[in-house]
Amino acid sequence: MKTRLWKVTGTTVAMLVIMTCSAFASEGPGGMPAKEIVPVAELDEAGVSTVYEEEFDGIVDGFRTDETQVAEQAEAVAEEQAAPAPEPAPAPAQTQSYSQDDLEVLAHVLCGEAHTYPDEEQRYVGSVVLNRVKHRAYPNTIRGVVFQKGQYACTWDGNYYRQPTEANYRNAKWLLENGSILPANVVYQSKARQGSGTYVSTKYHKYCYY
């Protein structure tokens, strides 16, 4: 913004007052004061310095111009009304992949080892199977773990081949989607203590560390 400013030095205040009074002393037609135009040159000679078309930042002797205030207020309002950036959508929960064979084998071993036991007990049994799949000492598939020679009695006493209950399928599916509920190195499920120590004992089994 460009504004024309008149800078009046302290030594010329009295002269300006005299010139103004002189202007009003002369009356024009009808008793109205005559207008007197003072040439810029005379103002300069009188010690009144003039500044034309000077660029300035909207602040004059400590005061802000109205336009500067309006601009700053508009900017502040715009910032307040600006909508916050939307938060990124949370990543979808990842579920573990499994095959239909995994579901069938796990449901059958739950049926054979914990047929009508409470859900927690069934999930303990299934968790041992899942832990073994990831353990270096056992096969890396559910079928391989369940049918490993000498491991699960239900595979040779016939209980594995019974029809799994709805609860057996539900718990098998839950485990396949959510994973083991036992510590990773709990890989034994038996009536007696095995391995390096017992993690938890129930009225049905002991679940022991490798």
Summarize this entry quickly.
GO terms for molecular function: hydrolase activity. The chain is α+β, with helices and mostly antiparallel strands and 210 residues long.
Describe what you observe in this structure.
With 210 residues, the protein is α+β, with helices and mostly antiparallel strands. It has 2 domains: 2-71, no CATH class; 100-209, Arc Repressor Mutant, subunit A (Orthogonal Bundle). The protein has 8 helices and 7 strands, in the order βααβββααααααβββ. The strands form 3 sheets. It has a 3-stranded antiparallel beta sheet, covered by helices on one side. It has a two-stranded antiparallel ribbon with strand order 1-2. A hairpin with a 2-residue loop joins strand 3 (59-60) and strand 4. Residues 1-26 and 51-56 have low confidence and may be disordered. Residues 72-97 are annotated as: Disordered. This is Cell wall hydrolase.
